[in-house]
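User: Run a structure prediction on this.
Assistant: Running it now.
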Amino acid sequence: MARSRSCRLTDVIWPLVDKHLWTEATKAGADRFADEGPLSRHSPKKRRDMWANYTTWLGFLAAKHPDHLNLPPGARLDRALIADYVHNFLGDKYAGFSLATFIDHLRLVLTAFCPDGDWYWLREIANRIKGRGKRKLKRHVTSDVLYALGVQLMEEAETGSTAAGRVSKRQVKAYRDGLMIAFLAQIPIRSGTLAKIRVDKQLVRAGRLWALNIPAEDTKTRVPLEYDISSTLSGQIDTYLRRFRSCCPGAETDALWLSVLGRPMAGQQILTAFNRRTIAAFGFAVTPHQFRHAAATFWAERDPVNVRGSKDLLGHASIKMTEKYYNMAQSRTAGRALADIIDRSRSSQRPRLRRRPERSRLGELPR
């Protein structure tokens, strides 16, 4: 069924009761002892997504069942209405996991608005939709292969700039992207934390080497993280700061990752750089978050006895989280251990990389 407008009707006017319930559900406590709303524990991005998806639900009611907006939020829906919402309002634009997310976000909001209601049936519907959706084929690489790609990019940038007698913008980007890839291969922090790194703040000198000290406010789990940086990676950071980053306008800023225009790189710019470099090397994109999967997988393959150390490496609050999401696989020790494993792996069998490959693969990668 064609529609003249997107089904994400974010300009819908919320009923007053919904506005009040949302404000109460998302309020943050003044301190750890104060009351807080049930939705406040979610990340700002997830709350924005829930707000947008609930607005879509209100838009559906306004367009198809306007009388329902006069009812309390928990009395507006039943299975037949949800079926109409899914099949006739969302179904021609969303499918699979995206469609299930709309239903699951509706469940979360209604659970916060009407905690005495039974909304488990919405979860069952969302799970059935997920089960019927076509899962994307996941392709995996491991940390040693990703680290080798980063080293290749840095070596090409150094060789090219030395031969030319100057540093071009292309070489600045190549070395920066290579360093980011090598950095995340050894220290698989989340992309939001990666973008926040500042020289002499989160990235600090520890003698001749660098170390990463990330405060709790810069992590998703609100747990501070500390990592020792290997001598090899520390030297590459020194080269980047001295030879390549210094060529960018605005190099006096403390942001570690700069664009060639001299502005700190935001999360989306970092994601774009990772996608471009990994697609060129492997034929498919490896996002910053997938570096975390790569680290857990690599650790499980090379050091299965001590695989629980990946909990500290990945900054998870508990081993249950590690087992739930990574199932195969004291942060300072963990980071040093992964770097040592990568170095041993590269010295025994370094992946062969082609220069600027077209739809190529690095070694034999599982599909």
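The chain has 14 helices and three strands.
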